[in-house]
Hints:
The protein is of the alpha+beta class and 77 residues long. It is built from 3 helices and 3 strands, in the order E-H-H-E-E-H.
Amino acid sequence: MPTFxxxxxxxxxxxxxxxxxxxxxxxxxxxxxxxxxxxRGKIERVQIDHRGALYHLPTVAKASKxxxxxxxxxxxx
Length: 77
């Protein structure tokens, strides 16, 4: 289960779906970052018949606002 879930397939507005390039543009990252997010379970693809891999752009935008990284060591502060 991804960290940022897509809406149910029946609730999707297909105008809000985009390719990996469009998802990268929305998130202001490289397409490779979108692939990493997907492989790490941060986001997921929307698979619709023959169209191939699409991404729910509002979900990608929401995921892009959460920065990854290691938490600061409390003892170092």
